[in-house]
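User: Need the bound-state model for zinc ion:
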Amino acid sequence: MTKTETEESDVKAKDAGHVKIFDTTLRDGEQAPGFSMSTDAKIIVARALEALNVDIIEAGFAAASPGDAAAISTIAREIEGPTIGSLARLNKNDIEAAARAIEPARKKRIHTFIGTSPLHRDAKLKMTKDEILKQISEVVAFARSACDDVEFSPEDAIRTERDYLIEAVEAAIEAGARTINIPDTVGYTTPEEITDLFRFLNEKAKGAEKVTFSAHCHDDLGMAVANSLAAVRGGARQIECAVNGIGERAGNCSLEEVVMALATRRDFFNADTQVDTTKIYAASTALARVTHNPIPRNKAIVGRNAFAHEAGIHQHGVLADKRTYEIMDAEKVGVPSNALVLGKHSGKHAVAARVKALGFNVSKEKIEDIFPNFKKLADTAKEVTDADLVRLVTGNAAVDGRAGPWRMRKTELHVDFEDDTRPHARVTMEHDNGERRTVTHEGEGPIDAAFAAVCAIADVPGRIHTLDLHHLAAEGVVRAEAIVDVDGKQFSGKAQEVDIADAAVAAFVAAINQAAAIRSGAFSFPNEAAAS
Ligand code: KIV
Ligand code: ZN
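Assistant: Bound-state model below.
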């Protein structure tokens, strides 16, 4: 039999230590409570995955609903690079639904599965071992007649008896499956155990040399990434993962973590992926945005703290040579800039560097001058923002605690659920020179509309990047922090108000005010020598 192009590439991938990235954000990820996505949202994520250059996108589960099937077809039509796959239970109807949904794709895969562990056989399927083996042989062969590229998963493989697992795997290979995925459906395994299992399958399963073994690990015990990497050590050459680690229950192996582990520790794993890591941050934020699930601040690789340093000793080290406290470049994962978070642990080096980055040309003496006030402020606030720093440096230039020329006068937010008008906001602000401006703007929601109105008034092209809101029940206030992108730089503003919307808008205004002040060149110290 002559090998197809994909078979050749499977064999090459095995030899070269190349690990395929099979992304299941849109299937296993989307299946998890709180992560369901509209077709439009799925397309946004699929485009981000295409930019990442993942090998396979599992776009959904066609037989689950007509909406899911339609979304898979749209993705199959619009996405060019990666193979597009659909999940299917091990029956002919599901296989046909999957084949129809992926039909428009340039490269297609059907991923079919059946439970093989005693619990799945006896409690869920009520099928004997032989009945399951027979179904694997028949339906995998049927899937191969519909699609050249078929993946088979013995669900709950980790809790399946080894001698039966190998029989199931061999039946699928014999029937034409080209990828054998070994799911740790309930996140139960350990690194040592899974390395051993993959070695066992690679060595003992008849036909192993013809297929790619794949790992699909869940994170119930927080080991999904470690287990996936351990599977690679045992010979897996495909990892199933999801952006931000989303998926059933505690989630799947996180794409960004596993990809960066392979890239950063190539010396150890001796394997690589074809993922364009500089697109990781964009994919992660796109998913967070469309699913309304913010990325935890301390999340590895993509969290706000991943490349942020507050401790003085760390900041001093990072300023001298980033490698002292960073094992990856922020730019490698597409994070806009590495942040030195200024707080009570920060030293003068970090304060001087941040002041300089904000566009001020100040002397060492000026830094000495403001440093005691910086420490005082840092003792009371959790974090000293750029706005705070501008205030400290500019001294009297700040009016009413504002580091900028605009003062909020009135905000009216409108949402009418009865008619078709879009949410809008009417905002009035006053400039230091006495001018008042009122702007009415539409938006995705009333707060988004208010942000747009503030930008129009201040004539600053701001885009909200992050908005953190904390309700402090004991004090009866809402604390807001807005990080706003302006001209490729980030400005942060903080505010505290009784009302949640007022707090969000006030924090946004604080950030925009800073940007307005710096854009106008109002704050600079041309006569002073540069701080070192
Ligand atoms: O976790 C699991 O077992 C799955 C299979 C369908 C691959 O998601
Ligand atoms: Zn799963």
